[in-house]
Amino acid sequence: MNEQALAWDDYRFVLAVGRAGSLNGAAKLLTVSHPTVFRRINAIERSLGARLFERAREGYAPTPTGEEVIAVAAEIETRIAATERRLAGLDARPSGKVRLTTVEPLLYGVLPPLLARFRVAHPGIVLELITDNAVRDLSRREADLALRPGGKPPEGLIGRKVARMATGVYRPRSLRLPRGARPDDLADYDWLVPDGNLAHIGMAQWLRHKQYDRRTVFSANSLIALRDAAACGMGLTVLPCYLGDAERRLARVGDPVAGLAADLWLLSHPDLRRTERMRVFADALREGLAALQPMFDGRG
Fold first, then answer.
1. Which of 6, 142, 147, 164 could lock 136 by a disulfide, CB 3.0 to 4.6 Å apart?
2. What Cα–Cα distance (Å) separates residue 57 from each residue in 21, 23, 41, 83, 256?
3. Which residues form the HTH lysR-type domain (predicted)?
4. Alpha helices for 90-158 (secondary structure H)
5. Domain residue ranges in the chain
6. In whole angstroms, how far apart are CA 188 and each of 205, 211, 215, 244?
7. CA-to-CA separations, 176 to 14, 181, 217, 238, in angstroms, rounded
8. Which fold has domain 167-253?
9. Model pTM above 0.70
10. How do residues 25-40 score in pLDDT, each as one tens digit?
């Protein structure tokens, strides 16, 4: 086998199939079509004269040769990303592109005004926003900065807490509850529950602990979907206060739930600390979010 016959783009395709375990998954990672991945992998195997993946109904599993090529590809990717970070860290100009990854709910009433003000102040910086519930790899430059709720930052990243977010139970205004109803005494009502890749978050765990999930009538992997379904009268749900309080068709039940508050972290890679565009953007986010703390607390 002659691995030197492969270009970096070939390694990228092999690495994507190895990580995804399927052609469809690799196509999504590479933002190309399924047939393109199929053709490239077949061409690479012909070029090497070796099979890299075993095809099965369950997906693509690497052969021992494939595992070797995947390991080489991952090492090359790591070196390229490290070089790009070092070069980006030498850039002292407040211009260029900044890629921010965050969760979808923060786009509703929180981030857009901050981003708009930043663009006015720094027209030379182009912002790219990636919103999903997946954790983007900052080491591989899938994003430059991450704004996410959670615990301490992963090893190898710099993290700063920029806000503390309260969480509450919300009812449709059309649903009347007994006077003095509290979040701890709502087992007789229909509930809307976080599911899928949100099934692990504190709100979902609290619902399971209270056994409210036994009355699940709707579940979704989107807090926006849960908020909108509750606003349409489908049942009760749990939401961050900044998201639930902003919806006039909802009313909070009692005070925010003790123990469900979460820290909002701004994460970055150490190699980008001296990049001027990253610094000014991170500073703007920290200042803007700090000013919104009353909204995150559920006080305004």
1. 142
2. 11, 12, 17, 39, 48
3. 1-63
4. 111-121
5. 3-79, 90-157+264-282, 167-253
6. 18, 11, 8, 21
7. 57, 10, 18, 17
8. D-Maltodextrin-Binding Protein; domain 2 (3.40.190)
9. no
10. 999 989 899 899 999 9
